Each structure stands twice: as structure tokens, then as C-alpha cells.
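Hi there,

I know you've been waiting on this one. I reran it after we fixed the sequence typo, so this is the corrected version. Both the input and the resulting structure follow.
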Amino acid sequence: MMHLENELIQGIIALEATVSEGKVMTVGPAPYRRLDCDGRALAYVRARPRKNAVRVDISGLWVPERTSPIREATATGAATLFIRSAADLEEALRFLVQTVQHTRRLHQVRANRLRF
């Protein structure tokens, strides 16, 4: 699972230049990894060995444009994805990039409405 976690983080950073790995403030080893974008938390990533998956919790600061077959419907926040395979990894990368792009468009529309 650790390889999927690393591939996700490296992949999203390569696809979206403004995404970076954020700092997790904790004593001892961090239980998750954080992805930041545009100065705010994009997602929290953690390995789930018992479920044989990587869990990606997208922050409520972001607005997903669509649903996904790897999305957990009952989760809190904007969305939760479970990655179990290379195909899931590709879907998660697409979903994250589209979520960033969609949220930016929404912010631009709102900013344009506020201009006189």
C-alpha cells in the first residue's frame, strides 16, 4: 500500500504544479500525509493496511465536480476515495485534478460577480 500512497502523492504533484506535500504537525510519526494546494489543505492521505487500500480524504474546502466509482458515499468532508489498484490510482489522480480545476472555476465566477 505504501507504493500506492507514494505514487499518488508524486503523481498529483507532477500533474498539478501548485500541489505540494504539506507538513503534518504531530508528536511522533504522522498517521497521515497532507496535500496542499493554493495555500490550503487539499487532501489527507493514509494507508489502510487492514482494508488493503489507501484512503484519500478531500478537504471540505474543495468542491468535487463529479462522483467516482472509488468514492465512499458515507464519508464526511468533500469526498473520500479508496485506492486499491493501479486503475484506482489513475481515477484518484483524475478526480483530484478535476476537483482542483472545478473549485478554481467556482472561485473565479464568484470573484467576477463581486466586481463592479
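Quick highlight: Residues 86-114 form the longest helix (29 residues).

Best,
R. S.
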